[in-house]
Protein 1
Amino acid sequence: GAGVSQSPSNKVTEKGKDVELRCDPISGHTALYWYRQSLGQGLEFLIYFQGNSAPDKSGLPSDRFSAERTGGSVSTLTIQRTQQEDSAVYLCASSLGVGQGTRDNEQFFGPGTRLTVL
Amino acid sequence: KQEVTQIPAALSVPEGENLVLNCSFTDSAIYNLQWFRQDPGKGLTSLLLIQSSQREQTSGRLNASLDKSSGRSTLYIAASQPGDSATYLCAVKVYKLSFGAGTTVTVRA
């Protein structure tokens, strides 16, 4: 594929249910990022992967949130026991690398998953 | 913690006028700065990327400057068109991106 893809594009769930959001980065991109865009909150960083490891999980809002990446490619963001405040657009991005001073660190974003918790 | 501020929050101009969008950040130790465009209900489209060692980048009608020492960047859009109506986001990077709240631009035909 030409760009970052995310699925589903929309997800409506009931409070207390678990959800899984998927991200397929651009082929060959080693770095993958999850962000969240909430109404009135702007865009906030959640977690970042370099390969399959996550050097920075500092943005995950609670222990109900977890993410994994397998094979250095696809990533899944899981939210357990969803709450209404989890409603947001979840955006995934990838970059070729992370080094300073190189265009490899440019991030490309997917279209997002809009999560609504009723 | 990096704080990114964008001014103004909203801007409405007649078609043909030049646009000036401002971004400021508190920590100058950045890898790069990216300007994005976001249309309603859509993801982010990267417009310009300025590495920390660069002073400006240009693409068509868009020009972005970076003054890392003062923590400022400005996005100029020349001869605005109604299709330029969108929210413009500034983000600074040290492996992860820290975003400003955005400037919502309306170009009136």
Note: The radius of gyration of chain A is 14 Å.
Protein 2
Amino acid sequence: EAGVAQSPRYKIIEKRQSVAFWCNPISGHATLYWYQQILGQGPKLLIQFQNNGVVDDSQLPKDRFSAERLKGVDSTLKIQPAKLEDSAVYLCASNWAGAADTQYFGPGTRLTVL
Amino acid sequence: QKEVEQNSGPLSVPEGAIASLNCTYSDRVSQSFFWYRQYSGKSPELIMSIYSNGDKEDGRFTAQLNKASQYVSLLIRDSQPSDSATYLCAVNADNDMRFGAGTRLTVKP
């Protein structure tokens, strides 16, 4: 069974630029999560999708971050414009049945904002 | 504010010893509890999940949950150098997953 795929693995941009990350969950997983992990901290949930609907985006900075999962499979997370404090690893995870279930994480995208 | 607290460490134990990792949480309606291991530069991977009070054992790992005290722990017996990693406690309440900052464990040969 293929795992959660993410791309790119690394991205370096300058502040005020835009960036997009892509995630393809494990086949059949209805729930998809985007997390932000700043160095030395635990993952912070940005947004949770159930199929193509948003379950929780309470911690997503909506003035600059957006995410979509149009067909209920893969997802993109966008930052526009980026700030220095957005430097982090962006993790995508998926599972069958919501937050009560084990989440399977992708390799992450390491973003550096200069 | 839902909080998950862990000692950041580092926790250092000799090879073969028992490592004890602790986590407290603030939300009394929390329903499911997870321990993830994260090697440096890698993504988290599940070690244990626990849903009811008491102990749950899986090989060298034992998770302990006490909902009255809002406390969950992970014991690693016969610690190996390969166990050196950051251990993340995660707590789910009403479909809202929160992670602690993690405890960094070092097992010295």
Note: The CA atoms of residues 6 and 107 of chain A lie 7 Å apart.
